[in-house]
Structure formats: C-alpha cells, structure tokens
Amino acid sequence: MSTQQAAPGRSSTTLVLVTLFFGVFVMGCAELLVVGVLDLIAADLDVSVSAAGGLVTAFALGIAIGGPVLTMLTMKLNKRTVLVGALVVFIVANLVLVLASHYALFLAARFVAGAVEGLFIGVAFVAGMAIVPPERVGRAIALIISGVTVSAAVGVPLGTLASQGFGWRGSFTGIIVLCVLALVATMVLVPSVAGSERDASADAGQAKYAFAPRVLFMLTVNIVVFTSLYTALTYIVPFLQNVTGITGALVSAFLLAYGVATAVGSFGGGRFADKSASGTLIVGTAGTAVALLVLYFVGSIPVLVALVMLLWGVLAMSMAPSLQLRVVTLAGPGGRVASSLPASAVNIGIAAGSAAGGVAISGFGPSAPIITASAIAVVGVLLAWATSYLKPPVIEKTAEPAA
C-alpha cells in the first residue's frame, strides 16, 4: 500500500490541494476550450465543423479508455512522479495542436491529452486523500474535482474570448503556459506519495476489487447523472434562444452564472460527501429531476429560468464529490485503480447525453432535451437509492502462524 513520506501541516495540505486543483483546472480548460472554438479550428484545418467535433470525441475517448489503463500501468510509481509526467506529456500534446496542421495528428494528440488528463485526475485524488485525515477526504476530493467545474465556469469563457483576439492557437499557447506553471508548482509543492509495491497477482487482485459488481453499479449512477446533465446542457443555448427568448451577450451571462453555480455546488458538495455520500446522491438526483422539470415549464420567463439554472447547477455538481468518494470506497483495496474510473463514466455520460439531447431536439424541438433530461434524472434517483445499500468489501486479515 502506498505511504506518504511525511504528513504536511494544515496550511501545507491546503497548498498541495490547491496545486492539484490548478492542474485539473488547466487540463479542464484545454479539454473544453475546443467546444468554444470549433468553427475557428474547422476553418484553419479546412474541415467541417462536425469533423472538428471529433476532437472532442477523441479527448473523451482518451479519458475513458486511456485514463484507467495508464493508472493501472503506473500504480507502482511515486504519485508525484506520475503527476509530473502527466503534465509533461500534456504540454507536448498541446504543443502539437499549436504547431501542427494535420487533422489526423490533431486527433492523436487530443486522445493522448485526454488519456493523461484521466491519469492526472485519478492520481491527484489518490495523492490528495493521502495527505488529509479521513474526516476531510470528501472535502479534498471536492476541491480537486472543482478544477473541472471552475474551468467550465471561468476558464472556457475567457479562453474563447481570447481566441477572438489572438486566434485559437493563441488560446492554446496560453494553456501551455499555465501547464508549465502547474508543472513547476507540482514539482515544488506536492509531497512524495509512494506507489504500490505489490506483485502481479496483487495487481490483479486490485483490479478485481476495482471492477467488482458493486463498483460497476455505482459507476452506472455516474453515467446516468452526467447523461441527464449533458442531455440538457449540450442544447441549453437553443433553449435559451428559442424558448426563453434571449440572445447575444445575455446568453453568455446565463451560462456564466450557471458555471459559477456548478463550481459552488462542487466545492460545497465535499462537506455533504463527508457526512453522507449516499444521502447526497439521493437528494441531488431528486433535486435535479425537479429543477429540470420546473425549467421546462417556466422556460419562457427569463428571471425564473435564471434562478432555476442556478439551482440546477448547484444540485448537479454537488453530487460530483460523492460519486467519486463512493466509487473509491466501494472498491476497497482496489481504490487506486478505481479512482480513475469515474472520469471514464463521466465521459460516457457526456457522449450519451449529447446523443440523447440531439435526438430529442431533432424530433420534438428546443424544449425536448430539458424534459428528457428530467426523465433520465428520475432514473438516477432510483439508482442512487439502490446503491445506498452497497457496502465496501470486508477484507479478512491472514492469521499469523502460532509460535
């Protein structure tokens, strides 16, 4: 089992967690920035916008497939070394985007960037949990995972705006600079957290726990929660424009407010995860289902839409720390491998949600993704309730032979 070399003090612990948060934040900006500059990339590479959208898919597949594989392959390495290595590869992958102009090379670079982001996030959770007492694990997870939500709320809008003045390559150059800062901070501030020193059979045993039915069931909740979220969120702009009747900068203001709400929910959700992760998921899924239903019915009233979107954002992302904590806890000895699995489940949910929302809006109009997302969230309530009965594995210690 991994052990840290020295337990940092409270202030040092906070600094380490902020460093891990910053690394996740920068990677999240790089992941999501493409969405805001697809038209610019498509024009630059002389491909269609739908083909440029493949860069989003490639990144998601990198996280979903490459993240868990790399996590298993690097289990025995020192966690600080893995974090540093992931950042170095991420920097190189984004340099390819800035310097190259071949579409196939772009796809490969995005897949690699996604894989090392999945690795970084999973290992960041392990390193973060290793330096805090058990009663603060949920809050540590919340701070780290908030890097993703804050990147969506702040980093992506700012990066997209910068692209208008400096081009999309200029925005990614800025991402590279931030990655270098994250790399330096990780090398200086993150303590040494030793890797696992087990043999191959023990590694297989960890995989057995990480992919146990109870963990896979819990991952299903992850998928459903984010399927619901992205069924509505992917097509929220057409809803705001065609149903609510707002356009231009006001749409950006609504999205920014929603993004800030998700960040608040993610930060605050850590405390609820520490108290009752299972209860948080039940309340969060139920609240999300109701919020989306209300949004469907008040869609033509801008003030109410803004208020409901704030509530929706807080509720949706308040579940993120609990989802991560439950998966790692239910995996028991396989927690290190399982730590990267929620990121894979999230990306499966994103892909499924965008597809479901696309079918809904094509067949039934701009309000359809909202009500579809609410129905999916109801399924999430049932799954969250069912998984609340799942318990971590009981590991029996081998008895010592008598003298």
TrEMBL record:
One of its GO terms (molecular function) is transmembrane transporter activity. It is a multi-pass membrane protein. The chain crosses the membrane at residues 12-38, 50-70, 82-105, 111-133, 140-160, 172-194, 215-237, 243-267, 279-298, 304-323, 344-364, 370-390. It is found in: Cell membrane. Pfam families: MFS_1. GO terms for cellular component: plasma membrane. It comes from the Bacteria. The keyword RNA-binding does not apply. Residues 16-392 form the Major facilitator superfamily (MFS) profile domain. This is DHA1 family inner membrane transport protein. It comes from Saccharothrix texasensis.
